[in-house]
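P.,

For your records, the input lines for the assembly:
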Amino acid sequence: MKSVENNKKHWRQRAYRSRYLLMMMMVPFLYLIIFQYVPMYGVQIAFRDYNPYVGILKSPWVGFAHFIDFFQSTYFFRLLRNTLTISLLQLIVAFPAAVILALMINELQNKLIQRAVQTIAYLPHFISTVVVAGLVLSVLSTRTGIVNQAIKALGMEEISFMTQSKMFPFIILFAEIWQNTGWGSIIYLAAMTAIDPALYEAAIVDGASRWEQVWNITLPCILPTIIIQFILKVGGLFTVGYQKILLLYNPQIYENADVIGTYVYRRGLMGLEYSFGAAVDLFNTVLNLIMLLVFNAICRKVSDTSLW
Amino acid sequence: MKTQKLSVGDKIFKTANGLLLIIFCALILYPLLWIVSGSFSDPFALMTGKVHLWPVNPTLRLYKVVFMHPDIWTSYGNTIVYTIVGTFISVALTCLAAYPLSRQEFFGKKFFTAVLMITMFFSGGMIPTFLLVQQLNMLDTIWAIVLPGSMSVYNTIVMRTFFITTIPKDLEDSAFLDGANDIQFFGKIALPLSKAIMAVMVLFYGVTHWNSWFSAFLYMSSRERYPLQLILREILIQGNTSIAGGGGDNDLIGEGVKFATMVVATVPIMCLYPFLQKYFTKGVMIGSLKG
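C-alpha coordinates returned:
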Protein backbone atom coordinates (compact mmCIF):
# COMPACT_ATOMS: atom_id res chain seq x y z
CA MET A 1 0.00 0.00 0.00
CA LYS A 2 2.76 2.32 0.86
CA SER A 3 4.40 1.93 -2.50
CA VAL A 4 1.18 2.96 -4.25
CA GLU A 5 1.10 6.12 -2.18
CA ASN A 6 4.73 6.71 -2.96
CA ASN A 7 4.01 6.26 -6.61
CA LYS A 8 1.21 8.75 -6.45
CA LYS A 9 3.41 11.29 -4.81
CA HIS A 10 6.10 10.47 -7.26
CA TRP A 11 3.58 11.02 -10.08
CA ARG A 12 2.66 14.49 -8.84
CA GLN A 13 6.27 15.37 -8.26
CA ARG A 14 7.26 14.29 -11.70
CA ALA A 15 4.47 16.32 -13.28
CA TYR A 16 5.48 19.33 -11.21
CA ARG A 17 9.11 18.94 -12.14
CA SER A 18 8.13 18.85 -15.80
CA ARG A 19 5.88 21.91 -15.52
CA TYR A 20 7.99 24.09 -17.80
CA LEU A 21 8.28 21.37 -20.40
CA LEU A 22 4.54 20.82 -20.14
CA MET A 23 3.99 24.53 -20.71
CA MET A 24 6.05 24.34 -23.88
CA MET A 25 4.26 21.21 -25.02
CA MET A 26 0.84 22.82 -24.51
CA VAL A 27 1.20 25.01 -27.61
CA PRO A 28 1.74 22.21 -30.16
CA PHE A 29 -0.66 20.01 -28.18
CA LEU A 30 -3.50 22.51 -28.52
CA TYR A 31 -2.57 23.02 -32.14
CA LEU A 32 -2.83 19.29 -32.82
CA ILE A 33 -6.13 19.07 -30.95
CA ILE A 34 -7.65 21.88 -32.99
CA PHE A 35 -6.27 21.16 -36.43
CA GLN A 36 -5.95 17.37 -36.34
CA TYR A 37 -8.24 15.94 -33.70
CA VAL A 38 -11.23 18.22 -34.21
CA PRO A 39 -11.38 17.18 -37.89
CA MET A 40 -11.08 13.55 -36.75
CA TYR A 41 -14.09 14.14 -34.55
CA GLY A 42 -15.76 15.86 -37.49
CA VAL A 43 -15.37 12.68 -39.53
CA GLN A 44 -18.71 11.64 -38.03
CA ILE A 45 -20.41 13.65 -40.77
CA ALA A 46 -19.69 10.59 -42.90
CA PHE A 47 -22.43 8.87 -40.89
CA ARG A 48 -24.77 11.86 -40.88
CA ASP A 49 -26.53 13.96 -43.46
CA TYR A 50 -24.62 17.16 -42.95
CA ASN A 51 -26.70 20.28 -43.04
CA PRO A 52 -24.65 23.47 -42.83
CA TYR A 53 -27.53 25.40 -41.21
CA VAL A 54 -27.81 23.18 -38.15
CA GLY A 55 -24.15 22.15 -37.84
CA ILE A 56 -22.44 18.80 -37.52
CA LEU A 57 -23.89 17.65 -34.23
CA LYS A 58 -27.51 18.33 -35.08
CA SER A 59 -27.47 16.82 -38.55
CA PRO A 60 -29.42 13.55 -38.66
CA TRP A 61 -27.67 10.19 -38.44
CA VAL A 62 -27.87 8.05 -41.54
CA GLY A 63 -25.54 5.22 -40.56
CA PHE A 64 -23.68 3.64 -43.44
CA ALA A 65 -25.96 5.03 -46.15
CA HIS A 66 -23.21 7.11 -47.81
CA PHE A 67 -20.81 4.19 -47.79
CA ILE A 68 -23.41 1.91 -49.35
CA ASP A 69 -24.16 4.58 -51.95
CA PHE A 70 -20.51 4.74 -52.80
CA PHE A 71 -20.00 0.97 -52.96
CA GLN A 72 -22.97 0.63 -55.27
CA SER A 73 -22.06 3.49 -57.57
CA THR A 74 -20.30 2.84 -60.87
CA TYR A 75 -17.47 5.03 -59.63
CA PHE A 76 -16.46 2.68 -56.85
CA PHE A 77 -14.75 0.10 -58.99
CA ARG A 78 -13.27 2.65 -61.35
CA LEU A 79 -11.75 4.75 -58.58
CA LEU A 80 -10.34 1.76 -56.78
CA ARG A 81 -8.86 0.41 -60.00
CA ASN A 82 -7.29 3.74 -61.00
CA THR A 83 -5.93 4.45 -57.54
CA LEU A 84 -4.39 0.98 -57.34
CA THR A 85 -3.01 1.07 -60.88
CA ILE A 86 -1.24 4.35 -60.34
CA SER A 87 0.16 3.49 -56.93
CA LEU A 88 1.14 -0.07 -57.82
CA LEU A 89 3.02 1.24 -60.86
CA GLN A 90 4.87 3.58 -58.55
CA LEU A 91 5.57 0.83 -56.04
CA ILE A 92 6.91 -1.51 -58.71
CA VAL A 93 8.91 1.00 -60.75
CA ALA A 94 9.61 4.18 -58.78
CA PHE A 95 10.37 2.48 -55.46
CA PRO A 96 13.15 0.17 -56.75
CA ALA A 97 14.45 3.02 -58.93
CA ALA A 98 15.41 5.00 -55.81
CA VAL A 99 17.21 1.98 -54.32
CA ILE A 100 19.07 1.32 -57.57
CA LEU A 101 20.04 4.97 -57.92
CA ALA A 102 21.43 4.97 -54.38
CA LEU A 103 23.47 1.83 -55.12
CA MET A 104 24.81 3.41 -58.30
CA ILE A 105 25.74 6.68 -56.64
CA ASN A 106 27.44 4.73 -53.87
CA GLU A 107 29.60 2.97 -56.45
CA LEU A 108 31.07 6.26 -57.71
CA GLN A 109 34.59 6.52 -56.37
CA ASN A 110 35.24 10.17 -57.07
CA LYS A 111 33.63 12.19 -54.24
CA LEU A 112 33.35 15.31 -56.38
CA ILE A 113 31.44 13.51 -59.13
CA GLN A 114 29.34 11.81 -56.48
CA ARG A 115 28.30 15.15 -55.07
CA ALA A 116 27.58 16.57 -58.51
CA VAL A 117 25.30 13.64 -59.38
CA GLN A 118 23.50 14.00 -56.05
CA THR A 119 23.01 17.74 -56.59
CA ILE A 120 21.41 17.09 -59.96
CA ALA A 121 19.33 14.16 -58.74
CA TYR A 122 17.79 16.03 -55.78
CA LEU A 123 17.07 19.21 -57.74
CA PRO A 124 13.59 18.41 -59.14
CA HIS A 125 12.30 17.67 -55.64
CA PHE A 126 12.37 21.40 -54.90
CA ILE A 127 10.30 22.42 -57.89
CA SER A 128 6.65 23.02 -57.03
CA THR A 129 3.92 20.58 -58.03
CA VAL A 130 2.27 23.24 -60.17
CA VAL A 131 5.45 23.92 -62.11
CA VAL A 132 6.13 20.19 -62.55
CA ALA A 133 2.60 19.74 -63.89
CA GLY A 134 3.17 22.69 -66.24
CA LEU A 135 6.45 21.13 -67.30
CA VAL A 136 4.74 17.83 -68.07
CA LEU A 137 2.15 19.60 -70.20
CA SER A 138 4.78 21.58 -72.09
CA VAL A 139 7.09 18.61 -72.66
CA LEU A 140 4.20 16.48 -73.93
CA SER A 141 2.38 19.19 -75.87
CA THR A 142 1.47 18.15 -79.40
CA ARG A 143 2.77 21.09 -81.36
CA THR A 144 5.77 22.27 -79.41
CA GLY A 145 6.70 19.57 -76.91
CA ILE A 146 10.11 17.94 -77.15
CA VAL A 147 8.69 14.43 -76.94
CA ASN A 148 6.50 14.92 -79.98
CA GLN A 149 9.32 16.65 -81.81
CA ALA A 150 11.43 13.56 -81.25
CA ILE A 151 8.59 11.30 -82.35
CA LYS A 152 8.13 13.32 -85.51
CA ALA A 153 11.87 13.34 -86.17
CA LEU A 154 11.71 9.56 -86.12
CA GLY A 155 9.05 9.77 -88.81
CA MET A 156 6.14 8.69 -86.64
CA GLU A 157 2.74 10.22 -86.08
CA GLU A 158 2.55 12.70 -83.19
CA ILE A 159 0.74 11.57 -80.06
CA SER A 160 -1.80 13.61 -78.15
CA PHE A 161 -0.74 12.44 -74.69
CA MET A 162 -3.17 14.36 -72.54
CA THR A 163 -6.30 13.16 -74.33
CA GLN A 164 -5.52 9.46 -74.22
CA SER A 165 -6.84 7.98 -71.07
CA LYS A 166 -4.62 4.87 -71.11
CA MET A 167 -1.42 6.91 -71.08
CA PHE A 168 -2.25 8.83 -67.93
CA PRO A 169 -0.95 6.41 -65.25
CA PHE A 170 2.38 6.26 -67.07
CA ILE A 171 2.60 10.02 -67.38
CA ILE A 172 2.09 10.34 -63.63
CA LEU A 173 4.67 7.60 -63.10
CA PHE A 174 7.27 9.39 -65.20
CA ALA A 175 6.61 12.70 -63.49
CA GLU A 176 7.02 10.98 -60.13
CA ILE A 177 10.25 9.26 -61.13
CA TRP A 178 11.65 12.45 -62.57
CA GLN A 179 10.82 14.49 -59.52
CA ASN A 180 11.44 12.17 -56.60
CA THR A 181 13.80 9.30 -57.42
CA GLY A 182 16.85 11.30 -56.39
CA TRP A 183 15.31 12.53 -53.18
CA GLY A 184 14.09 9.04 -52.34
CA SER A 185 17.61 7.69 -52.67
CA ILE A 186 19.00 9.85 -49.83
CA ILE A 187 17.67 7.62 -47.12
CA TYR A 188 19.41 4.57 -48.61
CA LEU A 189 22.64 6.50 -49.09
CA ALA A 190 22.43 7.44 -45.42
CA ALA A 191 22.02 3.78 -44.52
CA MET A 192 25.05 2.91 -46.65
CA THR A 193 27.34 5.28 -44.76
CA ALA A 194 26.79 3.10 -41.71
CA ILE A 195 28.20 -0.05 -43.36
CA ASP A 196 31.48 -1.22 -41.84
CA PRO A 197 34.28 -0.79 -44.44
CA ALA A 198 35.96 -3.93 -43.06
CA LEU A 199 33.26 -5.97 -44.78
CA TYR A 200 34.35 -4.69 -48.18
CA GLU A 201 38.03 -5.17 -47.37
CA ALA A 202 37.38 -8.78 -46.42
CA ALA A 203 35.39 -9.29 -49.61
CA ILE A 204 38.20 -7.86 -51.74
CA VAL A 205 40.70 -10.20 -50.08
CA ASP A 206 38.37 -13.05 -50.98
CA GLY A 207 38.41 -11.86 -54.59
CA ALA A 208 34.82 -10.63 -54.81
CA SER A 209 34.01 -8.48 -57.82
CA ARG A 210 32.35 -5.10 -57.47
CA TRP A 211 29.04 -6.53 -58.53
CA GLU A 212 29.31 -9.27 -55.91
CA GLN A 213 30.12 -6.69 -53.26
CA VAL A 214 27.00 -4.71 -54.11
CA TRP A 215 24.86 -7.82 -54.14
CA ASN A 216 26.29 -9.53 -51.05
CA ILE A 217 27.24 -6.62 -48.80
CA THR A 218 25.61 -3.30 -49.66
CA LEU A 219 22.17 -4.61 -50.46
CA PRO A 220 21.78 -6.88 -47.40
CA CYS A 221 23.07 -4.08 -45.16
CA ILE A 222 20.41 -1.62 -46.31
CA LEU A 223 17.64 -4.21 -46.41
CA PRO A 224 16.05 -3.09 -43.09
CA THR A 225 15.79 0.46 -44.43
CA ILE A 226 14.26 -0.86 -47.65
CA ILE A 227 11.71 -2.89 -45.71
CA ILE A 228 10.68 0.08 -43.54
CA GLN A 229 10.25 2.27 -46.61
CA PHE A 230 8.31 -0.51 -48.30
CA ILE A 231 5.90 -0.88 -45.39
CA LEU A 232 5.28 2.86 -45.42
CA LYS A 233 4.69 2.80 -49.18
CA VAL A 234 2.30 -0.13 -48.96
CA GLY A 235 0.48 1.60 -46.11
CA GLY A 236 -0.14 4.47 -48.50
CA LEU A 237 -1.10 2.29 -51.45
CA PHE A 238 -4.56 3.78 -51.60
CA THR A 239 -3.37 7.35 -51.35
CA VAL A 240 -1.75 8.47 -54.53
CA GLY A 241 -0.42 12.00 -54.68
CA TYR A 242 -3.69 13.32 -56.02
CA GLN A 243 -2.53 16.94 -56.16
CA LYS A 244 -0.54 16.32 -59.31
CA ILE A 245 -3.44 14.37 -60.79
CA LEU A 246 -5.85 17.16 -59.95
CA LEU A 247 -3.63 19.53 -61.91
CA LEU A 248 -3.07 17.25 -64.88
CA TYR A 249 -6.29 15.39 -65.55
CA ASN A 250 -9.24 16.57 -67.61
CA PRO A 251 -12.78 15.24 -68.06
CA GLN A 252 -11.75 13.52 -71.27
CA ILE A 253 -9.52 11.08 -69.41
CA TYR A 254 -11.38 10.65 -66.10
CA GLU A 255 -11.89 7.01 -67.10
CA ASN A 256 -8.27 6.22 -66.15
CA ALA A 257 -7.19 9.34 -64.30
CA ASP A 258 -9.83 9.87 -61.64
CA VAL A 259 -8.66 8.59 -58.23
CA ILE A 260 -10.24 8.56 -54.79
CA GLY A 261 -8.58 11.85 -53.72
CA THR A 262 -9.70 13.78 -56.80
CA TYR A 263 -13.19 12.32 -56.54
CA VAL A 264 -13.52 13.43 -52.91
CA TYR A 265 -12.57 16.92 -53.97
CA ARG A 266 -14.93 17.00 -56.94
CA ARG A 267 -18.02 15.42 -55.43
CA GLY A 268 -17.49 16.40 -51.81
CA LEU A 269 -16.20 19.95 -51.97
CA MET A 270 -17.13 21.19 -55.43
CA GLY A 271 -20.42 19.27 -55.47
CA LEU A 272 -21.13 20.34 -51.87
CA GLU A 273 -21.91 16.75 -50.87
CA TYR A 274 -19.87 17.06 -47.71
CA SER A 275 -21.12 13.93 -46.00
CA PHE A 276 -20.71 11.72 -49.03
CA GLY A 277 -17.22 13.06 -49.70
CA ALA A 278 -16.19 12.56 -46.09
CA ALA A 279 -17.45 8.97 -46.27
CA VAL A 280 -15.37 8.21 -49.37
CA ASP A 281 -12.35 9.82 -47.75
CA LEU A 282 -12.84 7.88 -44.51
CA PHE A 283 -13.16 4.64 -46.44
CA ASN A 284 -9.82 5.46 -48.07
CA THR A 285 -8.10 6.28 -44.76
CA VAL A 286 -9.33 3.09 -43.12
CA LEU A 287 -8.27 1.01 -46.12
CA ASN A 288 -4.77 2.49 -45.83
CA LEU A 289 -4.61 1.88 -42.12
CA ILE A 290 -5.57 -1.77 -42.60
CA MET A 291 -2.96 -2.21 -45.32
CA LEU A 292 -0.32 -0.68 -43.08
CA LEU A 293 -1.19 -2.85 -40.08
CA VAL A 294 -1.38 -6.05 -42.10
CA PHE A 295 1.86 -5.43 -43.91
CA ASN A 296 3.65 -4.39 -40.79
CA ALA A 297 2.53 -7.62 -39.13
CA ILE A 298 3.67 -9.71 -42.10
CA CYS A 299 7.06 -8.02 -42.20
CA ARG A 300 7.55 -8.51 -38.49
CA LYS A 301 6.84 -12.22 -38.84
CA VAL A 302 9.02 -12.73 -41.89
CA SER A 303 11.95 -10.45 -41.35
CA ASP A 304 12.16 -9.03 -37.80
CA THR A 305 12.01 -5.54 -39.28
CA SER A 306 8.88 -3.52 -38.74
CA LEU A 307 7.64 -0.08 -37.82
CA TRP A 308 6.76 -1.12 -34.30
CA MET B 1 46.80 0.59 -50.65
CA LYS B 2 44.31 1.39 -53.35
CA THR B 3 46.49 0.53 -56.30
CA GLN B 4 44.68 -2.72 -56.89
CA LYS B 5 44.22 -3.58 -60.52
CA LEU B 6 40.65 -3.63 -61.70
CA SER B 7 39.50 -6.85 -63.27
CA VAL B 8 37.76 -6.75 -66.66
CA GLY B 9 34.40 -7.40 -65.02
CA ASP B 10 34.90 -4.52 -62.62
CA LYS B 11 35.87 -2.21 -65.47
CA ILE B 12 32.68 -3.05 -67.35
CA PHE B 13 30.69 -2.59 -64.18
CA LYS B 14 32.24 0.80 -63.53
CA THR B 15 31.77 2.03 -67.07
CA ALA B 16 28.16 0.87 -67.26
CA ASN B 17 27.43 2.49 -63.92
CA GLY B 18 28.96 5.78 -65.04
CA LEU B 19 27.14 5.75 -68.35
CA LEU B 20 23.77 5.04 -66.80
CA LEU B 21 24.25 7.85 -64.29
CA ILE B 22 25.17 10.27 -67.07
CA ILE B 23 21.96 9.32 -68.91
CA PHE B 24 19.97 9.75 -65.71
CA CYS B 25 21.40 13.21 -65.07
CA ALA B 26 20.78 14.20 -68.68
CA LEU B 27 17.14 13.11 -68.39
CA ILE B 28 16.74 15.23 -65.28
CA LEU B 29 18.44 18.30 -66.68
CA TYR B 30 17.28 18.32 -70.28
CA PRO B 31 13.64 19.41 -69.70
CA LEU B 32 14.85 22.15 -67.35
CA LEU B 33 17.43 23.41 -69.80
CA TRP B 34 14.84 23.33 -72.55
CA ILE B 35 12.46 25.46 -70.50
CA VAL B 36 15.14 28.01 -69.64
CA SER B 37 16.37 28.19 -73.24
CA GLY B 38 12.83 28.42 -74.54
CA SER B 39 12.05 31.29 -72.20
CA PHE B 40 14.91 33.33 -73.66
CA SER B 41 14.12 32.41 -77.25
CA ASP B 42 12.19 34.10 -79.97
CA PRO B 43 8.59 32.90 -79.35
CA PHE B 44 8.16 32.09 -83.00
CA ALA B 45 11.15 29.74 -82.98
CA LEU B 46 9.64 28.05 -79.96
CA MET B 47 6.27 27.59 -81.63
CA THR B 48 7.82 26.02 -84.68
CA GLY B 49 9.88 23.61 -82.63
CA LYS B 50 13.29 25.08 -83.34
CA VAL B 51 14.46 25.28 -79.74
CA HIS B 52 16.28 22.12 -78.79
CA LEU B 53 19.07 22.93 -76.41
CA TRP B 54 20.19 26.56 -76.56
CA PRO B 55 18.13 29.75 -76.98
CA VAL B 56 17.31 30.70 -80.57
CA ASN B 57 17.53 34.44 -81.37
CA PRO B 58 17.82 35.37 -77.69
CA THR B 59 15.35 37.99 -76.50
CA LEU B 60 13.72 39.08 -73.24
CA ARG B 61 10.34 39.60 -74.87
CA LEU B 62 8.65 36.76 -73.01
CA TYR B 63 9.87 38.06 -69.66
CA LYS B 64 8.46 41.48 -70.44
CA VAL B 65 5.06 39.86 -70.97
CA VAL B 66 5.34 37.95 -67.70
CA PHE B 67 6.34 41.00 -65.70
CA MET B 68 3.46 42.96 -67.18
CA HIS B 69 1.00 40.32 -66.00
CA PRO B 70 -1.21 42.14 -63.49
CA ASP B 71 -1.29 39.34 -60.92
CA ILE B 72 2.26 38.04 -60.92
CA TRP B 73 3.67 40.75 -58.65
CA THR B 74 0.80 40.77 -56.15
CA SER B 75 0.85 37.01 -55.85
CA TYR B 76 4.62 37.01 -55.56
CA GLY B 77 4.31 39.39 -52.63
CA ASN B 78 1.56 37.26 -51.08
CA THR B 79 3.67 34.15 -51.37
CA ILE B 80 6.59 35.85 -49.64
CA VAL B 81 4.34 36.87 -46.75
CA TYR B 82 2.71 33.43 -46.50
CA THR B 83 6.10 31.75 -46.62
CA ILE B 84 7.60 33.90 -43.85
CA VAL B 85 4.60 33.69 -41.52
CA GLY B 86 3.99 30.02 -42.28
CA THR B 87 7.60 29.02 -41.77
CA PHE B 88 7.73 30.88 -38.46
CA ILE B 89 4.61 29.11 -37.18
CA SER B 90 5.79 25.72 -38.41
CA VAL B 91 9.25 26.00 -36.91
CA ALA B 92 7.90 27.30 -33.60
CA LEU B 93 5.40 24.44 -33.28
CA THR B 94 8.03 21.89 -34.22
CA CYS B 95 10.58 23.20 -31.68
CA LEU B 96 8.05 23.46 -28.89
CA ALA B 97 7.02 19.84 -29.39
CA ALA B 98 10.42 18.37 -30.22
CA TYR B 99 12.28 19.72 -27.20
CA PRO B 100 10.04 18.35 -24.41
CA LEU B 101 9.73 15.04 -26.26
CA SER B 102 13.52 14.77 -26.37
CA ARG B 103 13.90 15.05 -22.57
CA GLN B 104 14.32 11.72 -20.84
CA GLU B 105 12.27 12.47 -17.73
CA PHE B 106 9.57 14.60 -19.37
CA PHE B 107 6.29 13.76 -17.70
CA GLY B 108 3.74 12.48 -20.23
CA LYS B 109 6.30 11.81 -22.91
CA LYS B 110 4.57 8.63 -24.07
CA PHE B 111 1.17 10.27 -24.18
CA PHE B 112 2.28 13.28 -26.19
CA THR B 113 4.33 11.12 -28.54
CA ALA B 114 1.22 9.04 -29.20
CA VAL B 115 -0.88 12.18 -29.79
CA LEU B 116 1.68 13.23 -32.37
CA MET B 117 2.21 9.86 -34.06
CA ILE B 118 -1.49 9.08 -34.47
CA THR B 119 -1.84 12.07 -36.79
CA MET B 120 0.63 10.42 -39.13
CA PHE B 121 -1.63 7.44 -39.79
CA PHE B 122 -5.09 8.81 -39.31
CA SER B 123 -6.61 12.14 -40.19
CA GLY B 124 -10.00 13.74 -40.53
CA GLY B 125 -9.44 14.29 -44.22
CA MET B 126 -10.15 17.05 -46.67
CA ILE B 127 -13.78 17.78 -45.89
CA PRO B 128 -13.85 17.86 -42.07
CA THR B 129 -10.75 20.06 -42.22
CA PHE B 130 -12.48 22.35 -44.67
CA LEU B 131 -15.52 22.60 -42.39
CA LEU B 132 -13.24 23.41 -39.45
CA VAL B 133 -11.52 26.22 -41.36
CA GLN B 134 -14.96 27.50 -42.32
CA GLN B 135 -16.19 27.34 -38.71
CA LEU B 136 -13.16 29.25 -37.49
CA ASN B 137 -13.95 31.98 -40.04
CA MET B 138 -10.55 31.56 -41.59
CA LEU B 139 -11.71 31.09 -45.18
CA ASP B 140 -10.03 33.53 -47.54
CA THR B 141 -7.55 34.71 -44.90
CA ILE B 142 -3.84 34.08 -44.50
CA TRP B 143 -4.58 31.77 -41.54
CA ALA B 144 -6.25 29.20 -43.74
CA ILE B 145 -2.96 28.88 -45.59
CA VAL B 146 -0.46 29.02 -42.74
CA LEU B 147 -2.25 27.09 -39.98
CA PRO B 148 -3.78 23.77 -41.14
CA GLY B 149 -1.14 21.14 -41.79
CA SER B 150 1.72 23.39 -40.80
CA MET B 151 3.29 20.96 -38.33
CA SER B 152 5.01 17.97 -39.86
CA VAL B 153 5.31 14.87 -37.69
CA TYR B 154 8.34 13.77 -39.63
CA ASN B 155 10.20 17.04 -39.05
CA THR B 156 9.30 16.97 -35.38
CA ILE B 157 10.86 13.54 -35.04
CA VAL B 158 13.97 14.67 -36.89
CA MET B 159 14.30 17.60 -34.53
CA ARG B 160 13.66 15.48 -31.45
CA THR B 161 16.39 13.07 -32.54
CA PHE B 162 18.73 16.02 -32.95
CA PHE B 163 17.98 17.34 -29.43
CA ILE B 164 18.46 13.87 -27.93
CA THR B 165 21.87 13.48 -29.51
CA THR B 166 23.25 17.01 -29.05
CA ILE B 167 21.84 18.35 -25.80
CA PRO B 168 23.23 16.06 -23.10
CA LYS B 169 21.72 15.62 -19.68
CA ASP B 170 24.87 16.88 -17.88
CA LEU B 171 24.57 20.24 -19.57
CA GLU B 172 20.99 20.51 -18.39
CA ASP B 173 21.88 19.47 -14.83
CA SER B 174 24.57 22.09 -14.46
CA ALA B 175 22.26 24.80 -15.77
CA PHE B 176 19.55 23.72 -13.33
CA LEU B 177 22.04 23.91 -10.47
CA ASP B 178 22.57 27.54 -11.46
CA GLY B 179 18.85 28.07 -11.07
CA ALA B 180 17.67 27.99 -14.68
CA ASN B 181 14.37 26.37 -15.60
CA ASP B 182 13.60 24.31 -18.68
CA ILE B 183 12.34 27.22 -20.74
CA GLN B 184 15.34 29.38 -19.94
CA PHE B 185 17.65 26.48 -20.68
CA PHE B 186 15.91 25.85 -23.96
CA GLY B 187 16.07 29.48 -25.07
CA LYS B 188 19.55 30.35 -23.85
CA ILE B 189 21.48 27.12 -24.34
CA ALA B 190 19.65 24.46 -26.35
CA LEU B 191 18.49 26.70 -29.21
CA PRO B 192 21.86 28.40 -29.81
CA LEU B 193 23.42 24.93 -29.96
CA SER B 194 20.88 23.87 -32.59
CA LYS B 195 21.56 26.37 -35.34
CA ALA B 196 22.26 23.64 -37.89
CA ILE B 197 18.96 21.86 -37.37
CA MET B 198 17.11 25.18 -37.24
CA ALA B 199 18.52 25.98 -40.67
CA VAL B 200 17.31 22.59 -41.93
CA MET B 201 13.83 23.20 -40.53
CA VAL B 202 13.54 26.74 -41.87
CA LEU B 203 14.52 25.42 -45.29
CA PHE B 204 12.27 22.37 -45.24
CA TYR B 205 9.26 24.37 -44.20
CA GLY B 206 10.18 27.40 -46.29
CA VAL B 207 10.28 25.39 -49.50
CA THR B 208 7.04 23.61 -48.61
CA HIS B 209 5.23 26.88 -48.00
CA TRP B 210 6.67 28.50 -51.12
CA ASN B 211 5.59 25.59 -53.28
CA SER B 212 2.22 24.89 -51.70
CA TRP B 213 -0.88 25.55 -53.74
CA PHE B 214 -3.56 23.14 -52.57
CA SER B 215 -4.66 24.85 -49.36
CA ALA B 216 -4.90 28.16 -51.19
CA PHE B 217 -6.85 26.38 -53.91
CA LEU B 218 -9.31 25.05 -51.33
CA TYR B 219 -9.64 28.04 -49.05
CA MET B 220 -8.93 31.27 -50.97
CA SER B 221 -11.51 33.04 -53.07
CA SER B 222 -10.19 36.59 -53.55
CA ARG B 223 -7.79 36.87 -56.43
CA GLU B 224 -5.79 39.60 -54.76
CA ARG B 225 -4.90 37.18 -51.97
CA TYR B 226 -3.84 34.32 -54.23
CA PRO B 227 -0.32 33.00 -53.74
CA LEU B 228 1.97 32.72 -56.72
CA GLN B 229 1.31 29.00 -57.23
CA LEU B 230 -2.39 29.62 -57.91
CA ILE B 231 -1.64 32.25 -60.54
CA LEU B 232 0.87 29.81 -61.99
CA ARG B 233 -1.85 27.21 -62.15
CA GLU B 234 -4.00 29.57 -64.19
CA ILE B 235 -1.17 30.31 -66.58
CA LEU B 236 0.45 26.88 -66.86
CA ILE B 237 -2.42 24.46 -66.47
CA GLN B 238 -5.45 26.35 -67.65
CA GLY B 239 -3.41 28.05 -70.36
CA ASN B 240 -4.68 31.46 -69.37
CA THR B 241 -1.84 33.46 -70.88
CA SER B 242 -3.93 35.99 -72.72
CA ILE B 243 -4.50 38.54 -69.94
CA ALA B 244 -0.90 39.49 -70.24
CA GLY B 245 0.17 40.74 -73.63
CA GLY B 246 -2.81 42.09 -75.45
CA GLY B 247 -2.79 42.15 -79.22
CA GLY B 248 -3.25 39.36 -81.69
CA ASP B 249 -0.11 37.32 -81.16
CA ASN B 250 -1.17 35.84 -77.83
CA ASP B 251 -1.63 32.45 -79.31
CA LEU B 252 1.81 32.66 -80.77
CA ILE B 253 3.59 33.55 -77.55
CA GLY B 254 1.35 31.60 -75.17
CA GLU B 255 3.64 28.62 -74.87
CA GLY B 256 6.67 30.83 -74.42
CA VAL B 257 4.97 32.84 -71.69
CA LYS B 258 4.49 29.59 -69.79
CA PHE B 259 8.20 28.87 -70.03
CA ALA B 260 9.18 32.29 -68.74
CA THR B 261 6.62 32.02 -65.93
CA MET B 262 8.04 28.69 -64.79
CA VAL B 263 11.51 30.22 -64.67
CA VAL B 264 10.37 33.31 -62.75
CA ALA B 265 8.54 31.18 -60.17
CA THR B 266 11.35 28.73 -59.61
CA VAL B 267 14.40 30.99 -59.71
CA PRO B 268 14.41 31.96 -56.01
CA ILE B 269 14.54 28.34 -54.88
CA MET B 270 17.00 27.29 -57.55
CA CYS B 271 19.35 30.11 -56.59
CA LEU B 272 19.36 29.06 -52.97
CA TYR B 273 19.42 25.34 -53.70
CA PRO B 274 23.17 24.74 -54.25
CA PHE B 275 24.00 26.42 -50.93
CA LEU B 276 21.25 24.68 -49.04
CA GLN B 277 21.56 21.21 -50.45
CA LYS B 278 23.93 19.96 -47.78
CA TYR B 279 21.54 21.08 -45.04
CA PHE B 280 18.66 19.26 -46.68
CA THR B 281 20.69 16.10 -46.94
CA LYS B 282 21.76 16.46 -43.33
CA GLY B 283 18.13 16.75 -42.29
CA VAL B 284 17.18 13.54 -44.03
CA MET B 285 20.26 11.81 -42.58
CA ILE B 286 19.28 12.73 -39.03
CA GLY B 287 15.75 11.64 -39.79
CA SER B 288 16.88 8.24 -40.93
CA LEU B 289 18.53 7.52 -37.58
CA LYS B 290 16.17 5.59 -35.43
CA GLY B 291 15.25 7.88 -32.55
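Two observations worth noting. Residues 154 and 212 of chain B are 18 Å apart (CA to CA). Chain B touches chain A through 93 residues (CB under 8 Å).

Regards
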